Amino acid sequence: MNIILLGPPGAGKGTQASRLQEERGMVQLSTGDMLRAAVKDGTPIGVKAKAVMDAGELVSDEIVSGIIGEALAKLAPETGVIFDGY
Fold this sequence. Notes:
Helix 2 packs across helix 3 and helix 2 crosses helix 4. It is globular, with a radius of gyration of 13 Å. The protein is built from 4 helices and 3 strands; from the N terminus they run βαβαααβ. It has a domain of 52 residues.
């Protein structure tokens, strides 16, 4: 099972994702955390994202989807995922 949590900043997406992760043993994927990590690590997608963010623009769906794709590729297919903020 996969779950996507949507809502404005401060709505509690991260809190609910943490609870679900603990109760159901699912993996929590926070797009914001993954994006910051990719930029910090200097991955190819992170370099693209940094250029966009440094220009004061929003990161494209293509970049976010690429980061999510990389994270999902590392998981076993049967692993349940909670998307926090996609």
